[in-house]
Design a protein that fits this description.
alpha/beta, Rossmann fold, single chain, 41% helix, 10 strands, globular, 223 residues, 21% strand
């Protein structure tokens, strides 16, 4: 591994996380992963702990006229995590933010139809593990952590292969345990730069992975 390409693939990164998570000896692990890349990272963790993967749906709030960039993230139940500096710079009003969030939530409902939903009763009193393939701004992971915290788990572990230093400072305060082997304090940070193999997964690939682990380690129920 070198400082530009730390992991060969998401699968290899997942194996690194799995070894560290197993050392926590969580009594009632419940594995959650942020699609799409987080699902692939979670595979090795699911195999190590012999539990299914549950998708947690959060989504970036896109900047108007620049949808590749975001000003925060939103959960399926409407909880928003905002980059206040960006919101102020853009001059976005509360009504504009809510309008954008509502459109994003509609898109998220499609993902839930495709991937399935979380069983909140199973999350309650569990040792929740939230996985993603990396963290740049941190808003999506913070939204996921906030949403899961409201489900009253016994503990929350945030598990990501790599994070920017700025994001790490934010999300690490919201978890009981953090597994993040690489924290990079660099101005130009891109998650994909820390993988030799980097590509998007299709919906069909994600569905196949989720089905595989439901079949192997138990059927995940829907709420």
């Amino acid at each position: 591994m070198d400082n530009l390409h730390t992991y060969q693939s998401r699968e290899q990164a997942g194996r690194v996380l799995a070894e560290e998570i197993s050392k926590l000896n969580l009594k009632k692990p419940y594995l959650l992963a942020i699609p799409r890349g987080g699902i692939q990272v979670a595979e090795a963790i699911a195999d190590k702990l012999q539990i299914p993967i549950n998708p947690i749906i959060v989504k970036k709030l896109p900047i108007p006229n620049n949808p590749e960039a975001g000003f925060g993230a939103v959960t399926i139940d409407g909880q928003k995590v905002l980059d206040k500096k960006t919101v102020s710079y853009l001059g976005l009003t509360e009504d504009e933010i809510n309008s954008i969030a509502n459109k994003v939530i509609q898109e998220m409902h499609h993902r839930i139809e495709v991937y399935g939903s979380i069983n909140q009763k199973e999350v309650e009193s569990s040792d929740a593990i939230i996985v993603d393939d990396g963290v740049a701004t941190g808003y999506s992971l913070i939204a996921a952590l906030t949403s899961v915290k409201n489900m009253n788990p016994n503990s929350i572990t945030a598990a990501v292969p790599v994070s920017s230093g700025n994001a790490y400072e934010k999300f690490s305060k919201l978890a009981n345990y953090v597994v993040c082997p690489l924290v990079e304090n660099t101005y130009f940070f891109a998650v994909g730069g820390y993988y030799r193999e980097w590509y998007d997964l299709s919906e069909e690939q994600i569905k196949s992975i989720l089905k595989k682990y439901r079949d192997n380690y138990g059927q995940r129920k829907k709420i």
